[in-house]
């Protein structure tokens, strides 16, 4: 997993729970000294998942609560500083989500060692999208939290429902 994810997790935890919570979460994950992390560095997925589990134990949040908090933080704060260009041209959550697979393809070209998730799209109706998450990481809760964060960013009340272990149903508000 790219270091930028860990950097955003650290920022969020320190901002919302304090620096001590981050330190305790690292200790919970078996890390006694915080390593220096660059945004483009690769961090072992298991280490990141252990840190997230440590955060959940330290803060008393469930994985879904953490995922929702992180999704909102990533989309509305971190990505606005670090990946603002990806939001250009998207006027609504639908536009943004529909281009995420191509964004991840371009990221893989730019950073060949990266393995971001890929997405497939199937329209169930005019305002209902089935989005398939394709990643061996199995971070479906984080994916759902990110979709909710996209809705918050665009001021849209998205209805997001997990329908399989790798698919979500997203109901967009009907156009006025």
Describe this structure in words.
With 176 residues, the protein is of the alpha+beta class. The chain folds into two domains: 59 residues; 83 residues, H-NOX domain (Alpha-Beta Complex). The protein is built from seven helices and four strands, in the order ααααααββαββ. A four-stranded antiparallel beta sheet has the order 1-2-4-3, covered by helices on one side. Helix 1 packs across helix 2, helix 2 packs across helix 3 and helix 4 packs across helix 7. The protein starts with a helix and ends in a 5-residue tail after the last strand. The mean pLDDT is 92.
Secondary structure topology:
Elements: H1 3-17, H2 19-28, H3 45-59, H4 63-82, H5 93-98, H6 100-110, E1 118-125, E2 128-134, H7 140-153, E3 159-164, E4 167-171
Antiparallel strand pairs: 1-2, 2-4, 3-4
Helix pairs in contact: 1-2, 1-3, 2-3, 4-7
How helical, in percent, are the residues? Answer: 40-55%
Radius of gyration: 16 Å
What is the name of the CATH superfamily of the largest domain?
A: H-NOX domain
Structural class: alpha+beta
How many angstroms separate the termini?
40 Å
Q: Calculate the mean pLDDT score and round it.
A: 92
**CATH architecture level-2 label of the largest domain:** Alpha-Beta Complex
CA-based shape = globular
Number of strands: 4
How much of the polypeptide forms β-strand, as a percent range? 5-15%
Order of helices and strands: HHHHHHEEHEE
Provide the CATH top-level class of the largest domain: Alpha Beta
The biggest sheet, with number of strands, parallel, antiparallel or mixed sense and barrel status, is: 4 strands, antiparallel
Please count the helical segments: 7
In the CATH scheme, what's the topology name of the largest domain? Answer: H-NOX domain
Q: List segments where confidence is low: pLDDT < 50 over at least 5 consecutive residues.
A: none
Spatial order of the strands in the main sheet?
Answer: 1-2-4-3
Number of domains: 2
């Amino acid at each position: 997993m790219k270091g930028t994810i860990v950097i955003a997790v650290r920022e969020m935890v320190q901002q919302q729970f304090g620096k001590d919570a981050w330190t305790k979460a690292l200790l919970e994950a078996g890390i006694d000294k915080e390593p220096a992390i660059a945004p483009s560095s690769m961090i072992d997925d298991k280490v990141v998942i252990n840190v997230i589990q440590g955060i959940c134990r330290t803060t008393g949040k469930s994985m879904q609560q953490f995922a929702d908090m992180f999704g909102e933080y990533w989309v509305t704060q971190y990505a606005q500083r670090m990946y603002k260009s990806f939001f250009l041209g998207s006027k609504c959550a639908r536009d943004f989500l529909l281009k995420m697979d191509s964004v991840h393809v371009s990221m893989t070209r730019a950073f060949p060692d990266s393995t971001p998730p890929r997405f497939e799209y199937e329209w169930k109706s005019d305002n209902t999208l089935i989005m398939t998450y394709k990643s061996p990481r199995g971070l479906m809760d984080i994916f759902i939290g990110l979709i909710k964060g996209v809705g918050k960013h665009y001021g849209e009340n998205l209805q997001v429902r997990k329908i399989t272990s790798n698919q979500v149903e997203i109901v967009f508000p009907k156009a006025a």
